[in-house]
Design a protein that fits this description.
Chain lengths: 167, 295
């Protein structure tokens, strides 16, 4: 647990990831991306630039998108983390994932998880975003394959799917 | 990438923070706010503190409050909280507008107001806006508290007047005079990137004449720059295109030693400073005119 006095070596950490409670002892310098990948073996969170620019390592912490390379693992103590692995429910893909497949929102797939997590937060704040509002969020990650148009269409498709399932 | 080893502490009170700073050599300690500038430096080992002192659990530094004089923002308030604040949108639309120009949503979810002020990146939006809004920054240390006008706070590249044992606690933004027009513009290669150059201004109009104009530019020099001589050239003059062009030209000429790097040449930055100051003054004048006709 994060403490009032300096700690070296292992720090105890309790965190809920994709609904599952985990307890670990981590080195203070371990970032959240490495914790998810190396400690929890949740390797769908990819690591790109490792200094916050590319957005590929995005995950949700208490519902907010963060660059997991720019957060320390110890900082998610007591919090709720959602990664790409947590999107599908009971073997059924999330509408955002289905939409990416239908619209060819990915080619190599390396960046895709980062986009999906940012889009999750977008829909949480705004279930029917305008094209401008989608671009603002999509523009926060880097994709070197699609040219973004297919991603934009994926988000619009997902918004339609999710709207339909709500009504 | 993996940062060099460090010890970690996350006190929950300001007194706890000062106590830790007192027990350690402050030069060996790095305060962490949102980490959106510090984490890249740690990952790349450009910063190798012995101790990271995380301010993330100090709830007393996370607030937005209205006072008789204006608005006070706690240093640990995230940019996202500013973006979502009705109070800021209503009282300080300029501060709001500059907030959504910073990075991307995930950066604003973590990055703080105090962190951007303390980081003092010359291309950062907040320092320039703090200058035109004549904000004050409050810092505490074991030696006490001091209030620093924005004009004195930003020193040079990535350098403020804060001492290593001082912690920035809040930013006080005085209320704008009634009917003040404002504007903010920047040029970046992509939306969300650090600006190549940006400009911001506030301005009142009385019978078409400029009152108390304030002008600042970021991304052009070693820090956010304010231009008192251009401001006095404009004050008392009618805010016509001709006058504004003259003021903008004076700003461009006054940028000392503009940055020259891979993103843009010094000449281009000087040119942009003039163009953007012209634009923000025109826009601020329109807003001021609308405000005085009650539109
Ligand atoms: C992809 C990306 C894009 C970005 N784009 C922009 C942009 O367009 N414009 C922009 O302005 N910024 C941008 N940033 C930087 C971002 O805004 C940072 O959040 C900000 O510069 C620092 O705030 P922070 O809270 O993250 O501070 P940290 O990174 O935690 O700290 C920054 C520095 O300030 C010191 N510090 C922090 N808080 C205090 C305090 N209370 N008292 C004393 N010292 C303190 C720290 O010790 C450290 O030296 C971007 C960052 C990324 C990763």
């Amino acid at each position: 647990m994060a403490s009032e006095q300096p700690q070296q070596g292992g720090i105890r950490l309790k965190v809920r990831v994709n609904g599952e409670q985990h307890e670990s002892v981590v080195d203070p310098r371990m970032n959240l991306a490495d914790y998810l990948r190396e400690e929890l073996r949740l390797t769908a969170t990819h690591v790109g630039c490792e200094h916050g620019v590319c957005g590929i390592c995005n995950v949700l912490v208490d519902g907010q998108t963060v660059r997991s390379c720019l957060m320390l693992a110890v900082q998610v103590d007591g919090k709720e983390v959602l990664t790409v692995e947590g999107l599908a429910e009971g073997g059924k893909l999330h509408p955002i994932q289905e939409a990416f497949i239908e619209e060819h929102g990915l080619q190599c797939g390396f960046c895709t998880g980062g986009f999906m997590m940012a889009i999750c937060e977008l829909f949480d704040r705004n279930p029917s975003p305008s094209e401008e509002e989608i671009k603002e969020v999509v523009g926060g990650q880097i994709c070197r394959c699609t040219g973004y148009n297919a991603i934009l269409r994926s988000v619009q498709n997902a918004a339609a799917k999710m709207g339909a399932s709500r009504s | 990438m993996k940062s060099a080893p460090f010890e970690y502490v996350a006190p929950s009170t300001i007194s706890g923070v000062l106590e830790i700073l007192g027990q350690n050599d402050p030069d060996e300690v790095k305060l962490m706010a949102g980490g959106q500038s510090l984490m890249p430096l740690l990952n790349m080992r450009l910063s190798r503190p012995a101790l990271v002192l995380d301010l993330g659990r100090v709830a007393d530094l996370d607030f937005i409050r209205e006072t008789d004089q204006g608005v006070v923002i706690g240093a640990m308030t995230t940019k996202r909280a500013v973006e979502d604040s009705e109070l800021i949108l209503r009282e300080h639309p300029l501060f709001w507008e500059s907030t959504v120009a910073i990075g991307h949503p995930p950066i604003r979810n973590r990055g703080t107001v105090g962190g951007s002020m303390a980081q003092a990146d010359p291309a950062s939006e907040y320092p320039a806006v703090a200058l035109v809004l004549e904000a004050e920054l409050v810092a505490v240390s074991a030696r006490g508290e001091r209030t620093i006008p924005a004009d004195d706070f930003f020193v040079t590249y990535l350098t403020t007047c804060l001492e290593p044992d001082e912690v920035l606690t809040e930013i006080r933004i005085p209320r704008l005079a009634p009917r003040t027009g404002w504007a903010f513009q920047e040029v970046a290669r992509r939306h969300g990137d650090f600006a190549i150059v940006g400009a911001t201004a506030t301005l009142g109009l009385e019978a078409g004449v400029a009152v108390e104009p304030r002008i600042a530019v970021f991304g052009a020099g070693d820090r956010a720059l304010r231009f008192p001589s251009a401001e006095s050239l404009l004050a008392g003059q009618p805010a016509t295109d001709e006058v504004i062009d003259e003021v903008a030209a004076q700003v461009a000429a006054a940028v000392e030693d503009p940055l020259d790097d891979a993103h843009a040449s010094a000449d281009y930055r000087r040119h942009l400073a003039g163009v953007l100051v012209g634009r923000v003054l025109r826009e601020a004048a329109v807003r001021a005119a609308e405000a005085s006709t009650g539109a």
